[in-house]
TrEMBL record:
Record-listed substrate binding positions: 50, 198
Reactions mediated catalytically: 5-(2-hydroxyethyl)-4-methylthiazole + ATP = 4-methyl-5-(2-phosphooxyethyl)-thiazole + ADP + H(+)
Gene source species: Jejubacter calystegiae
EC number of this enzyme: 2.7.1.50
This protein's record includes keyword Flavoprotein: no
Pfam families: HK
Protein name: Hydroxyethylthiazole kinase
Record keyword Ribosomal protein present: no
Cofactor: Mg(2+)
Enzyme class per UniProt: transferase
Family affiliation: Belongs to the Thz kinase family.
Function: Catalyzes the phosphorylation of the hydroxyl group of 4-methyl-5-beta-hydroxyethylthiazole (THZ).
Biological process annotations from GO: thiamine diphosphate biosynthetic process; thiamine salvage
Record key words, sorted: ATP-binding, Kinase, Magnesium, Metal-binding, Nucleotide-binding, Thiamine biosynthesis, Transferase
Length: 262
């Protein structure tokens, strides 16, 4: 299956747009990754806001630049608030992004994620097992972690993208970003990105920010993936393990420039 490399000019342009337009990202995300997600967005120049009450979420998603819906610690009450936020974002023509954390075996989140798929997400970002399961296939997964490579899940990602009119980013050792017709390939990153919690969730928030930027959505989302991967590569050379990786990762996002990205 044909996939193309992403050009570094596109990455630099996306980074520039993140820093200059500072998209306001309404994050409805899980309990584990709230602060890390906010800090990743801030380090890239975007503005996070976590608004969770049903009524407030509907108000806020209409004025935010983009909405993130992450089902990592879904409850019935949160599902109601997320539905209200999605409806309101769509009415206001704001893009929204789905992160189907651990979709597959667990009923509430799997049913919810499949239900909201009908509500035209601008993008979906998940690991291989999550994308396979969301597309109706045999995504095993081990809790929030993938047991399937992104490459194996690429046909499912392309199917999902075509069926839903969304950009789908399936991540892993190599990230693949597809609109169902074209697929961009983002190699790099580091295994350490999987040894601290929340890098996938934070990437989904970055994808939401990228969906609010001018330019092509496919390139913008792929650039968001490359930005995270490159920061991971930089951070691992400056750290001794997971504990020191996290602050180095945030610093690397902040410091990314043309020299680091070309
Ligand atoms: N084996 C790997 N080597 C390098 N980077 C990886 C690897 N696995 C995941 N990543 C990176 O880690 C980040 C989180 O992706 P992933 O682990 O797929 O999501 P999740 O945390 O939702 O399971 C992405 O930037 C991805 O490119
Ligand atoms: C550990 C955990 N449990 C529920 S959500 C969550 C965070 C998952 O983060 P990520 O998908 O970025 O690895
Ligand atoms: Mg995840």
């Amino acid at each position: 299956m044909q996939s193309d490399p992403l050009c570094s000019d596109a990455v630099l342009q996306t980074l520039h747009h993140l820093r200059t337009t500072s998209p306001l990202v309404h994050c409805m995300t899980n309990d584990v990754v709230q602060t890390f997600t906010a800090n990743v967005l801030l380090a890239l120049g975007a503005s996070p806001a976590m608004v969770v009450d049903e009524q407030e979420a509907a108000q806020f998603s209409a004025i935010a630049s983009a909405l993130l819906v992450n089902v990592g610690t879904l409850t019935r009450e949160r599902a109601r608030a997320m539905r209200a936020a999605i409806d309101s974002a769509r009415e206001a023509q704001r893009p929204w992004v789905l992160d189907p954390v651990a979709v597959g075996g667990l009923t509430l989140r799997s049913d919810f994620a499949r239900e909201v798929l009908a509500l035209q997400p601008a993008a979906i970002r998940g690991n291989g097992s999550e994308i396979l399961a969301l597309a109706g296939g045999q995504g095993g997964g081990r809790g929030v972690d993938s047991t399937d490579s992104a490459r194996v899940a690429l046909p499912a990602a392309r199917h999902l993208a075509r069926e839903r009119g969304a950009v789908v980013a399936v991540t892993g050792e190599i990230d693949y970003i597809t609109d169902g017709e074209r697929t961009l390939e983002v190699p790099g990153g580091d295994i350490m990105l999987t040894r601290v919690v929340g890098t996938g969730c934070a990437l989904s928030a970055v994808v939401a920010a990228c969906c609010a930027l001018p330019g092509e959505r496919l390139e913008n989302v792929a650039a968001g993936c490359r930005i995270m991967a490159r920061a991971g590569e930089m951070a691992v050379t400056r750290s001794q393990g997971p504990g020191s990786f996290v602050p180095q990762f945030l610093d690397a996002l902040w410091q990314l420039d043309a020299e680091a990205l070309v």
